[in-house]
Amino acid sequence: MAAITAAMVKELRERTGLGMMECKKALVAVEGDIEKAIEELRKSGQAKAAKKAGRTAAEGVVVTKIAEDNSYGVLVEVNSETDFVARDENFLGYVEKVVAAAFERKEADVASLMAGELEEARLALVQKIGENINVRRIHIVEGGVVGGYVHGNKRIAVLVSQEGGDAELARDVAMHVAAVNPQVVSKEDMPADLVEKEKAIFKAQAEQSGKPAEIIEKMIVGRINKFLSENSLLEQPFVKDPDVKVGALAKKAGATISSFVRFEVGEGIEKEEVDFAAEVRAQAGL
To answer: What does the alpha-carbon distance between residue 85 and residue 130 come to, in Å, rounded to a whole number?
Structure first.
C-alpha cells in the first residue's frame, strides 16, 4: 500500500472540505487513491456534507449547563443556517450531546471536543437535515458561585461567577447581563484603548461647541464617566429594580461579582444576503 503522506491528506481536504482525520481514514481505506477516496466519500454522503460546510450558519442556539453545586458551568453555541432548524428536535438533541460532553470533560476547545463521535454525529445530522451545522464556541466558567441564565428562545445565554452570595443572585445578575449587555464588570476593567477612543470622539464633539478649553475638558470628563457607568455591570441599575445598582445588590448579599460571559447567537458572523428570486432565475437559466 502506498504511504499516506501529508500532501495527499492536504489535497483531499482542499477538494472535499472534510477534516484531517476523515481524509486520512478515507485514503487508508482506498490505499492512497485520491480519486477513489473522493468517490467513496461521495457515496457515504460525507462529501455532500462538506459542501454544506461552506454555507454560512448564523442561526442556532446558545445553552448552558451548570454543576449541581454551582462550582462550574459551560456555555456553548451551536449554529445552523436557519431559525427553523434551530427549533428542530434532532438539532436540539445534538446540542444537548455537545453540551453534556463539554460539561463532563470540562473541554472548551471545540476541535478537541469534536474529534470522534460528536463529529460523526454532526455529519450525519447535516445529511439528515440538509443544512450546515457548526459547533462554534465553548466557554467554561469555574470558581466561586456560578449561575446562569438562558433567554427563552435560546438566542442569548450568560454565565456569571461570584465570590459569596448564592446561586439565585448569580442567576439574577446573569439575567441582567442578558438584558443590558454590559462590556465589563467594573469601570477599572474597561480597556484603556477603548476609553481613549471614546475620549477622542467626545473631544471632537465638544470642540464643535466653541466653548472654552476648560469647559470642554469638564465636558469630556463627564461624558467619559457616563460611558463607563453605562457599560460597567456594577454601575448599571439592576434590571429587576432600577433603583438599585448591580454593585449595591451584590454587596448587600455579601457577594463580589468576579466575571461574566455572554453569548448571543450569530454575533460577529457576517450573514450572506441571498437574493432568492435571482437564485431561482439562475437555476432556471433565465
So the answer is: 9
Domain 6-52 top-level CATH class? mainly alpha
Instruction: Identify the CATH number of the domain defined by range 59-182+256-264.
Output: 3.30.479.20
- CA angle (222, 224, 226) in 5-degree steps: 70
Answer for the pair 269, 56: CB distance below 8 angstroms, yes or no: yes
pLDDT, tens digit, for every residue of 250-274? 999 999 999 999 999 988 876 655 4
Compute the distance between CA of residue 177 and CA of residue 240 in angstroms, rounded to an integer: 12
Query: Residues in the chain, how many?
Result: 286
What is the Cα–Cα distance from 117 to 99, expressed in whole angstroms? Answer: 14
- Domain ranges for the chain: 6-52, 59-182+256-264, 187-247
Calculate helix-pair angle for 34-44, 6-16, nearest 10 degrees: 40
Helix locations, the chain, DSSP H: 6-16, 20-29, 34-44, 46-52, 83-86, 89-105, 110-114, 117-129, 167-180, 192-207, 213-231, 246-252, 276-283
Taking CA atoms, 205 is separated from 185, 213, 217, 230, in Å, by: 28, 13, 12, 19
pLDDT tens per residue across span 52-73: 555 666 799 999 999 999 999 9
